[in-house]
Write a structure and sequence with these properties.
It contains 9 helices and 4 strands; from the N terminus they run αααααββββαααα. By secondary structure, it is an alpha+beta fold. The longest helix is centred in the last third of the chain and has 25 residues. The relative contact order is 0.15.
Length: 239
């Protein structure tokens, strides 16, 4: 990636800066390089889940992990637009409610019920050549004091946070939108998309805004400058 100036961090920033085009062709246009150079850069690293934890761990110290909840869930990234992506295969998607062509991803999320923060701490990409096909659902806890059904159901309700996380990943980072055919390119794109979400979360947290507003703000600033409006954010007067 360094040969074209397109590091994994640069690629993550690119995912945050674009809204509807997440292709190497678009990246090449922005970076003023050839499509081959952009696609070579995307598959030029072997990004691994461990690198994600290295980014997250300062936000998730041991005391938070002890009081929080760990949420595991699998999701199929929709790749129905292509039949030539190496690690995409036909599999059941609960979100689509049918069998689709996609890449299976398992995410491990930490949720802090006191701050309502949820952070991705690990992930795995399903390898159909090595992984099994059986699906089993488990609910596990080390909170042995959960004796009442009401309390247990409240804890199980934390699982909704991973649905929120997936929705933000899809809408804000284009995690499903990569069209590269090589497995390594897809893996690197998925890793960078999760890293991009974390960057967005950090910015949103520091500014006290939502991740959606953090995504829109640079474009809003551009439009304000374009139309000669002040860039300082003010709340509208009540009607």
């Amino acid at each position: 990636m360094a040969r074209t100036g397109i590091s994994s961090d640069v690629y993550a920033e690119y995912l945050l800066s674009t809204f509807d085009n997440f292709t190497c062709s678009h990246l090449a246009e922005i970076m003023d390089c050839s499509h081959d150079a952009a696609s070579d850069a995307l598959r030029g690293h072997s990004l691994v889940p461990r690198a994600l934890w290295d980014r997250v761990r300062r936000h998730c110290p041991l005391e938070l992990r002890r009081r929080g909840a760990m949420i595991l869930d699998d999701r199929v990234l929709d790749k129905n637009f292509s039949k030539k992506i190496e690690n995409a295969c036909r599999q059941w998607s609960g979100n689509a409610g049918k069998v689709i062509t996609g890449v299976g991803v398992v995410n491990w999320l930490h949720y802090d019920p006191l701050t309502d923060d949820y952070l991705p701490i690990d992930y795995r990409i399903w390898d159909r050549e090595r992984d099994g096909t059986k699906r089993t659902e488990f609910h596990m806890t080390n909170q042995l004091h959960l004796q009442s059904r009401t309390t247990a159901e409240a804890v199980l309700g934390y699982g909704w946070k991973i649905e929120q996380f997936y929705r933000e990943l899809k809408q804000l980072t284009g995690i499903e939108r990569c069209q590269a055919r090589k497995q390594r390119s897809q893996r690197n794109h998925i890793h960078c998309a999760i890293a991009a979400w974390l960057l967005l979360w950090e910015r949103a947290r520091s500014l006290g805004i939502t991740v959606y507003e953090a995504k829109r703000r640079p474009f809003t600033d551009y439009l304000r400058e374009r139309f000669g409006m002040p860039t300082a954010y003010r709340r509208p007067h009540p009607v």
